Amino acid sequence: MTDLITAPARRAVVAATAQRRARPIALVGAVVAAAGLPAVVDRYTITLAGAALVLAGLAMSTQLLVGTAGLPAFGQPAYFGAGAYTAALAAQAGITNGPAQLAAAAGAGAVAAVLTAPVVLRTRGTAFLMVTFAVQSLTATAASRWRTVTGGDDGLHTPPITVPAAGALTSPAHVYWYTLAAFLCLCAAVAVLLRSPLGLRLAGCAGQPPRMSALGHPVNTLLGAGYTAAGAVAGASGALLVAVHQYVSPADIGFETAAVTLLAAALGAGTMTGAIAGAVAVVACRDWIGAPTAGHGHALLGLLFLTVAYTRPVTAHARQLFARRSRP
User: Fold this and answer.
1) How far is CA 61 from CA 1, 138, 149, 159, 175, in A?
2) β partners of residue 163
3) C-alpha angle with apex 233: 43 to 213, nearest 5 degrees?
4) Residue 107: how many CB atoms within 10 A of its CB?
5) Is the confidence at residue 63, as pLDDT, over 60?
6) Per-residue DSSP letters for 26-71?
7) Are 265 and 111 contacting, i.e. CB atoms less than 8 angstroms apart?
8) Residue 124 near residue 194, CB atoms below 8 Å
9) Rounded to an integer, what distance in angstroms lies between the CA atom of residue 109 and that of residue 90?
10) Which of 133, 135, 160, 270 could be cross-linked to 67 through a Cys-Cys bond (beta carbons 3.0 to 4.6 Å apart)?
């Protein structure tokens, strides 16, 4: 009788253990496949892969707010732009070292987030979405009008980045490998943050802000720290944009960038790995598959979003059914 009662629970434990063991293997396989991509695709596809990594970094920044802190952010391209223009200006000033640009861009994104957080975090819900949208719009407008610094709508062209012991990276494959390495560092930093006390408290603030406040946690301070961290990740992703394209303009931080970033986060269903996969799917539909379809990439994006939106409830129901059957 005991065996009959505990058998479903034992099967659930075995399945959960197998899933935990499979995750590192899948992660290593994905990294190996990404690293070997330049050996099997052409230069254009390599460039698109680099662009996908840039968007994935920005999607992680958005997911940190949307999926972890429960803040529907639309303005992360503002901090993305702060980092991108910081890296571009540094490159034009002769600082072409890639890691140095990455650090400076992350700092610029964090500072910009700190400056805007007191205003943005006074709101929640739809009001928060609209305020962050205003921050993004004002930043794009400022980049377009401030020609003496940003080059206006013409943007800024930059020389190739350099790395120690390798010199200037002029090959698309070398630039892609640098972007992949920097992106993996960002992923590691975000993973550490999510498992830190700050990350756990941010998740608590997303679920029950009044209860967190009643327990003595400074909710606004915690959200401000999370907002700053998300700004730093967005800024670092801006430096990767400059590394991949050697160019930045106001169009890179415009409404479309904000929309596709939020779409990638929505496709991610609240997880960082999902946001990364969503960003890759967005670039694949819009630029890789959409290019041969006479410019119907945005229609494919809409179809992708509708497919995920309508199949997600079915998937969630299937998971609940599986979990219910696995209970003792």
Assistant:
1) 51, 19, 26, 27, 22
2) 167
3) 150
4) 17
5) yes
6) HHHHHHHHHHTGGGTS-HHHHHHHHHHHHHHHHHHHHHIIIIIS--
7) no
8) no
9) 15
10) 270
